[in-house]
Design goal:
416 residues, alpha+beta, 7-stranded mixed sheet, 4-stranded antiparallel sheet, 57% helix, MacB_PCD
Length: 416
């Protein structure tokens, strides 16, 4: 055992010495592996960061959450002209389904509307995301508060002029002052601030809660009516845990069809969109991005591997005389093989380490410059290092074997 450890130590020392004596060659050999590892790990780190951001943004919603509205979240076989005839879901349908549905944890009503300006004294914030929802959304979206509360069912049903604001809105309008109890202007009317949402950071899909305000859905209904085509109404279902989703969707369809008087044989004039379908779609995109990154970066690694193999064959050619002398002095074949194999692996690992450092530096810089956290995880670091080692092993194995099999007499004669 000690003999093998000594053999490994001496082979490692010879490899390091060879790399030091050929600095330019070493540098050129590093470039291919550095670019390859940088490409792969940069893509994987970016995709992992994106995946983490998406997961964080969607963490407040259960994957079984269902959105009932007159449009589909994904592709559909129903022609566009037919879909355009589908009626908007109505508030009375929400009230009906709320009392009729079984196995339901929460059921809420939301209206999608355009952004507005929110004012307080001489200050104002433009392009504010207005979120008119029923009282159940505090539980559906698992909203968290730094101050105050969400409006209750009574306030929501009456369309009370109360408002819950995001952290960014609170900071822009009130600086460090307490917003609770103060009045802001929206739609030309005064709303009393009753809650401030906990800061979440920028959202990946449009506006985040930080730049949003929540108002009772019935205020919007009273202001714009139920038949306003510029608004999109949605009924949101949160089923109980463990419910058979297909049976639950069938129950929604059966009860809404009966309520609307849809005849047997006619298609549903509404869409039941399950949130898990959207997340599966996103997961598919992320998987494709990872695969694309591997394919593109694989070519860089292939070029880097060929570069190292070429340099190692040149190194064997240059040191043929030295190999012959080492063998004549008693060096075993495995000693010569390990010497060149270690040189290739060390060369590749150094190139990989430089590639990882570049990824880390860019990730830190982008995280500071953008409101988005790029993360170089331990898994990607280990993957990059492992790939570099494997590339070095594969690239160096043939030159190392050819060096170990040289005849000592012929090697010395060739090198003279």
């Amino acid at each position: 055992m000690l003999l093998y450890l000594r053999l490994l130590k001496e082979s490692f020392a010879f490899a390091i010495n060879a790399l030091r004596n050929n600095k330019l060659r070493t540098l050129l050999s590093l470039l291919g592996v550095t670019i390859g590892i940088f490409s792969i790990i940069a893509v994987l780190a970016a995709v992992d960061s994106l995946d983490r951001k998406i997961t964080n943004d969607l963490s407040g919603l259960d994957k079984n959450t269902i959105y009932l509205l007159n449009s589909s979240f994904g592709p559909t076989d129903i022609p566009k002209w037919k879909r355009e005839q589908f009626p908007n879901v109505k508030y009375d349908e929400y009230v009906y389904l709320k009392g009729a549905m079984t196995n339901t944890d929460q059921l809420g009503y939301q209206i999608f509307t355009k952004s507005e300006i929110v004012k307080y004294d001489s200050k104002q914030v433009s392009d504010v995301n207005i979120v008119p929802v029923s009282a159940e959304f505090v539980d559906i979206e698992k909203l968290e508060f730094s101050k105050g509360r969400f409006y209750n069912e009574s306030e929501a049903n009456s369309g009370a002029k109360v408002i819950v604001i995001g952290d960014e809105i609170a900071t822009s309008l009130f600086d460090n002052a307490d917003p609770i109890g103060k009045s802001v202007r929206l739609y030309g009317q005064r709303f009393t601030v009753i809650g401030v949402l906990t800061k979440k950071g920028a959202g990946l899909f449009g506006d985040s809660n930080d730049s949003s305000v929540y108002v009772p859905v019935n205020f919007i209904r009273q202001k714009f009516g139920d038949n306003n085509t510029s608004l999109t109404n949605v009924i949101v279902f949160k089923p109980e845990s463990g419910v058979d989703m297909e049976a639950y969707k069938a129950e929604i369809s059966q009860k809404l069809r009966a309520y609307r008087g849809v005849k047997a044989g006619e298609i549903d004039n509404f869409f039941i969109n399950v949130f898990s379908g959207f997340t599966d779609f996103i997961d598919g995109i992320i998987g494709s991005m990872k695969l694309g990154g591997w394919v593109i970066s694989g070519f860089s690694l292939l070029v880097g591997g060929f570069g190292i193999a070429n340099i190692m064959f040149v190194s064997v050619k240059e040191r043929t005389n030295l190999i012959g002398i080492q063998k004549s002095l008693g060096a075993k074949n495995r000693f010569i093989m390990f010497q060149f194999l270690f040189e290739a692996i060390i060369l590749s690992v150094i190139g990989g380490a430089i590639g990882l450092l570049l990824v880390w530096g860019i990730a830190v810089g982008l995280s500071k410059a953008l409101d988005f956290e790029f993360v170089l995880g331990l898994g990607n670091i280990l993957l990059g290092t492992g790939l570099a080692g494997i590339i070095g092993l594969i690239s160096g194995i043939l030159p190392a074997i050819s060096a170990s099999r040289l005849d000592p007499v012929e090697a010395i004669r060739t090198g003279m």
